[in-house]
Amino acid sequence: MSTGYVYHPIYLKHNTGAHPERSERLIAILDLLKKRNVLDRLVKINAERASIKEIEYNHDPAYIKHVQAVSEREGALDLDTPVSKDSFDAALYAAGGLIGAVDQVISKNVTNAFALVRPPGHHAEYAKGMGFCLFNNVAIAARHLKLHHGLQRILIIDWDVHHGNGTEHSFYDDPSVLYFSIHQYPHYPGTGRIDDIGSGEGEGFTVNVPLPPGVGDKGYLEVMNEVLLPIATEFNPEFILISSGSDLHKLDPLGGMNVTSPAFGKFTDIVREIGDGVVVTLEGGYDLTGLSESVLAIFGSLAGIEVDTGEMALDRSERDVADVISNVKKVQRSYWNI
């Protein structure tokens, strides 16, 4: 297998000040990948600046101009989402980096890839930035796959601890994109209920698994094996995108899910059972150790490299997820053989 990675130094210039989503996140990831001799075993994918037209795949032209204007004057899109002079360009390169990653996988230049980008994107709505996100990188990449490569079945898996409201809304009525989210609930932004299943032709193509805090490795694996695998296998995706937040890690200050570093590698193993053509993009994750080790574990799975990130905690789960799984199955049984 050849595994690619996307990185561009402009991502560090998105200056958020004293903020959880800060440039040190990428620095910590790259440092650990170098220390563990993983980076030189990967294929570098150059990030190109996305065009305004490409951002318009998923966003209101007036909103794009608003982001540029606020960036130029170094303001904020909301209370949680500060921007600096270089933030607009960084956001264009983040979306462009993900487009480049999917193109490289489609072209079979690499087997799979991880886009180490910032700012993140899954909270960004059509005409609104929020939750540290400016443009919805994964949604733009999915639309690129549809428009430029003619794909008709795209799976987006979002395991960030926060529900990806922006991504869900982007494809809520679209049967060509199956959006599957596992997230802590109730938690920011308060969306992602079990009965949020899509609308119109897209009904049944949104799957939300809202979990209570503290379910840990065991609970996540139960959800992936009992809900994700059967639904995704039946959907039979032509391409898989993963919004990977590491804020479900047990060390993370903004989550409470108690997941260990090596579990992220196991999650990725499960996704790779579903199909080929996998591109991961970086979303949340705010403890530098938890974040960098989680990303290392994902790269280990993607590239088939043995990496040591400790032991999984499979012997217990602080909270039982059986009721959640049962309720999700009841709702989704009208659409899937589950």
From TrEMBL:
GO biological process: epigenetic regulation of gene expression
Annotated GO MF terms: histone deacetylase activity
InterPro entries: HDACs, His_deacetylse_dom, His_deacetylse_dom_sf, Ureohydrolase_dom_sf
Pfam families referenced in this protein's UniProt entry, alphabetically: Hist_deacetyl (PF00850)
Histone deacetylase domain span: 19-299
The protein's name: Histone deacetylase family protein
